[in-house]
What does this fold into?
Amino acid sequence: MLWTIFVILVVLWLLGFSFHVGGGLIHLVLVIAVIVLIYNLLIGRRRGL
It folds into this structure.
């Protein structure tokens, strides 16, 4: 589920570069998504150990 949201955000971010849609908001959402992704990866590794 998280990977699907991440991929959708990356696609929207790239479309924002192409068509200038969303302004700075899509960049902010993408940064938040990357932070959440890194956090979940780190937490997942800790639980696996």
In short: The chain has a mean pLDDT of 75. Residues 2-48 form one domain. The two ends are 23 Å apart (CA to CA).
